[in-house]
Amino acid sequence: MDECGLVTIELTLNGGCVRLEVDPGERLLDTLRDRLGLKGTKEGCGEGECGACTVLMDGVPVNSCLVPIVQARGKRIETIESVDRAQLSALLDSGATQCGACTPGVVMSAAWVMQHPELLHTHGLRELMAGNLCRCTGYDGIIGGLAAAIEAGLARKSEGEG
Amino acid sequence: MLSEAGGQATLLGGTTDLFVHWPERMLDADGVFIDLSGVGALRAHRWEDEALVLGGLTTFWDIIQDERADREMPVLVQAARTVGAVQIQTRGTWAGNIANASPAADGVAALMVRDAVVELTSCDGIETIRLDEFYLGYKQMRLRRDQIITSIRVPRQSCSVERFIKVGTRQAQAISKIGVAIAQSQAGWRIVANSVAPAVCRCRTVERALDDRVPLPHVDALVELLGSDVSPIDDIRSTAAYRRGVLARVLYHELAPLCEWVGPQRGAS
Amino acid sequence: MRSSRRREGISKLTGQERYVDDLTVEGCWWGMTARSPVARGRIREIRFGRGVDWSEFVVVDHRDIPGANQVRLIELDQPVLASDRVRHVHEPVVLVAHRSRQMCRRAIREIEIVVDPEPAVLDYRIKPTPEQIQYGPDNVFKHLRIEKGDVDRALASAAHVIEGVYETGAQEHVYLEPQGMIAGEEDGVLVVRGSMQCPYYVLNALMHALGRDESHVRVVQTPTGGGFGGKEDFPSNLAVHAALLALKSGRPIKMIYDRSEDMGSTTKRHPSLVRHRSGVDSQGRLVAQDIEMTIDGGAYVTLSPVVLSRGIIHAAGPYACENVRIVGRAVLSNSVPFGAFRGFGAPQSQFANERHMDRIARTIGMDPAELRRRNLIRDGQTTSTGQVISDGTDRVEVLERALCRSGYAQKKEECVSFNAAHPYLRRGVGLAAFYHGSGFTGSGEVYLSSCVDVAGLEDGRIEIRTANTEIGQGTLTIFATIAAERLGLDESQIVIAEPDTARVPNSGPTVASRTAMVVGRLIERACDDLRRTLGLSEADTGQRLRDAIMKWWAEHPDTEPVGHARYESPPGVLWDDQTYRGDAYAAFAWATHVAEVEVDLRTFATRVVGFWAVQEVGRVINQTLARGQIQGGVVQAIGWALMEDCVWDDGAMANAQLTNYIIPTACDVPSIDVEFLENPYPHGAMGAKGIGELPMDGPAPAIVNAVVDALGVEASAIPLTPERLMELVTHG
Predict the structure, then answer these.
(1) What CATH number is given for C26-118+179-256 in this structure?
(2) Which of A1, A61, A67 sits opposite B86 (nearest CB)?
(3) Is the CB of residue A107 less than 8 Å away from at least one CB of chain C?
(4) Where do the domains of chain C lie?
(5) Which of A71, A77, A78, A109 is best to mutate for the B interface (most B CBs within 10 A)?
(6) What CATH number does domain B43-155 carry, 3.10.150.10, 3.40.50.620, 3.30.465.10, 3.80.30.20?
(7) Substitution target from A3, A26, A45, A53 for chain C, most C beta carbons within 10 A
């Protein structure tokens, strides 16, 4: 969007400090994809409905298509590029991805839930994942894989403690 | 800044509404955007003796995460959990829900049912106004262009009943076709409906009937009372007939177990 | 057998997969489309406003088309860009390109297409007036007819005659990746890369509209984020648009639809209206089925004739009946052309049929499961086209498994007591028995004459070359499994060639539940041919095969060893396209689905609380992928049945946003229980039949049947939204 002058912002991206020039009118999604070349985050609708562009901002999932880049100043942003492959085998085995277009967003939401199993005291998995539309799997592959991943995570944790 | 902008400024809060289809909408956007997100003081909410005070940037998720809110004001948590999905709840703010003035605002219904008061700040000072007196019509409200919502006070009166029921196009990630918040406290009954009038509104005729224990033996009795409280329309999400009928049915079935004067056998006696 | 992991799974889960919008091309400009504002009319003028500097843009209209201004498909009636007339809202008229996407958006707003409106057909169900005629004498794109036995005589002597009318609405695909293409000239060859199901369809469309031969056009499929039929025909249109801009500007052009443009202007599932008149005897046996199916084709012919064909062939359901008459019509309307969508007419006609079976059961006082049990085709009996079914599948067993797994009989009883006690919730159980023909209809596969190559690479690995695409359904994984199994190799030794028309033969489109069964079988045969080429026997596998390939390369350094296969019809499969008699499909997959619903009489919202899907699909090549196909299809069908409602306003989709066109979230659907009964099909790869479309056919009628069971009202149209259900319950 070559409409306005550029401004300089700083943010923490996937653990590292980033300083870059942005158009104040652009979305976090545009910055990630077009300025930083992080193409893993997808645009599915541009209206905050499908969740394909989900990233974590200060540790919670947001739709990056609805975040003005100026609001990402000083924030901690984590994208699909930061996700540890080892976390993903349960999702792979359960058939959580088919066409893959919703998948990066699904994985970011899932990764957040995996980091915060305490969310399950108040929320069900389906409610936590309701912000990610998937047209291929019917959700069983996603929910089943996430449940398995959480269980494996808890098991690892208790082994570690034991 | 707001007064300098000559009343043309748009405030950026959670931007879950403003940024929808943004690249296209940006073509129509002119004037000044003022980002509030850097104003840290606006984010936190606090519990005072008399009230829960939400900041101008307190998000739905902030309240969903607060166990005390879940205990003391479950209607807020219930409503917040029906707003979009997590990705919207983490960004959407209560104040933005109010200032956006959508008739479908679920958060507004929950706040209004608990007699919330809005605090508006400008260079000229602070003004407070009850949320149920805040809206004047469709997207019309008592908020000057030089004012911002700095906090929302939700009185900590205890309610014997409080709940929010949403009828959406689907179970999650939906805009309300109908929403209704119900509460009863020392102040009496409160019934607040959204998506059935130009703005979120109290259904005062129904409230009075409940306070006066007027027998409501069947759904039609509520349909009639609601006729003077709400004025639903046909739109892309639903129909006026559906909204009118379903609001009455939901209310009827929610109230029947709570009020001995609502329901068939009671009305008949 | 063990399910192989999805080959590109980790790449997708880690966000490494590169879709067309993720590709960066040096010097690339953006392309965008200016569209008709009205449903029908004559273009008077195109005005270019002063809000942008037009010298910065490249602008294309119909005069820039070097070949024919026609989108090549079954007929040639659809223009690439409208010249003098428009036939639907959002019909493309002018294309613009600029280096900035935002400037393109601005430019589109500056283009005013002035159209003198003409009388439009906005409801396909109403007979058109003379002023509304735009195709042939009566706006009918296609008439088809199936006749078996003597329907009128059978109806006259039937114990009961039951009639019903059923309707289904348009459905938007909502593939999560919107349509997108990049086109550019590379060394005199126009190369188009993009999201698509059928590279050779796109290639043929480009050759036709650009007036180029095959050596000057190349089409490459990029990883495709969902298709469901929506990327079968439509990508041809977008590819030609991108190509026209690329040729005129001399630069690569990227066109990516945003969601609203995609939903507003691309194809959808055909709406349908089906009338049934059935005769049954005193035992509940079908003695006559008289069926009339009308589908809304939209503004141009596109694929409507073949959608209608599959629709009517499936219209009588998986039942034995000696007297059947099915009349089908596809008619024009001035809405966006309706196109391919998973199931391709069969979900529409089987919705009607399975709803009608329940109506029959209620009318004669028989349990719906028992009615189906009595009528399901037994081996040796025939379908409506006279096709003798003798595949050895026990269709009654499929039904019984579904009843047993779901606890159908007990659930029915529980619902009755639950409903008597609850103030406003009502539960019900419904089922649907159905089938789906695998592969192209009739002689379609013979005409396609698909080819597959399997090559031995210099390093000893095997490369499979087909034009069939991975669109999420698992093509890459099952192709690798099929070849590895056939050749006794590890799957890591199998390479799947990128679908690039310059490199792969035309193995036909990725549609019609044909990829595993038909193309997979060609891979097996090409593997065998490769062994022959290498002088090996069928017993030679694994290391011996690899050694033979290495030896070949040592001896023939300039010639690659390649095995070929071309489609041959399985023996005894005969079809007469004139009379619509014979073997409509080489094989059918069979299924029974059971749905349990809960209707809230406060809100009239229907929730599917349980779903059981039992199907016989031949041998299952990969359990995880197959289950994913069923679960995904069921959920897509739940959306179609209950919530997905295209709202039309003067021929335009008024709710072309994901906020207002509602598809199911994880919260809206239950876990889908899946069981496969496996009866290997001898002419499909590893014994497989088609699977992808089958799960779209049954859930909608099963769900609506369950709603009828819960409430006792005869619902006959979908989507059965709460608003419609309230109308039915309160006004009948």
Answers:
(1) 3.90.1170.50
(2) A61
(3) yes
(4) 26-118+179-256, 272-441+579-731, 450-566
(5) A71
(6) 3.30.465.10
(7) A45
pLDDT at residue A5 in the model: 85
Peptide bond before residue C719 is cis, with ω within 30 degrees of 0: yes
Percent pLDDT > 90 in chain C is: 99
Q: What is the pLDDT of residues C307-352, one digit of tens each?
A: 999 999 999 999 999 999 999 999 999 999 999 999 999 999 999 9
- From B15, B21, B81, residue closest to A46, measured CB to CB: B21
Helix ranges, C250-283 (H): 259-265
For every residue of chain A, DSSP letters joined together read -TTS--EEEEEEETTEEEEEEE-TTSBHHHIIIIIS--TTS--S-SSSSS-TTEEEETTEEEEGGG-BGGGGTT-EEE-GGG--GGGGHHHHHHT--SS-SSHHHHHHHHHHHHH-GGGGGT--HHHHTTTS--SSSTTHHHHHHHHHHHHHHHHHHHHHH-
Query: Which pairing describes strands B51-55 and B148-155: parallel, antiparallel, or unpaired?
Result: antiparallel
Does pLDDT of B267 surpass 50? Answer: no
Q: What is the DSSP letter of C382?
A: B
Give the confidence band of C1 by pLDDT, cuts at 50, 70, 90.
low
Which residues of chain B approach chain C closer than 8 Å at the C-beta?
20-21, 23-24, 26-27, 85, 167, 169-175, 177-178, 236-239, 241-242, 245-246, 249-250, 252-253, 256
Q: Do C603 and B250 touch (CB under 8 A)?
A: yes
- Range B230-263 burial, b when 16+ CB lie within 10 A, else e: bebeeeebbbeebbbbbbbbbbbbbbbeebebbb
Contact B21 A47 (CB under 8 A): yes
Residues of C whose CB is below 8 A from A107: 13-15
The confidence score (pLDDT) of residue C732 equals 74
Closest CA relative to residue C731, chosen from C640, C604, C622, C589: C604
Q: Which residues contact C377 (CB under 8 A, 6 or more apart)?
A: C318, C319, C320, C383, C389, C395
Contact B21 C260 (CB under 8 A): yes
| In the block, residue with structure tokens 């929808």 | B20
Q: Return the domain boundaries, chain B.
A: 43-155, 161-268
Q: What is the predicted ipTM?
A: 0.97
Distance CA C418, CA C421 (A): 5
**Identity of the residue numbered C337:** P
* pLDDT value of residue A157: 82
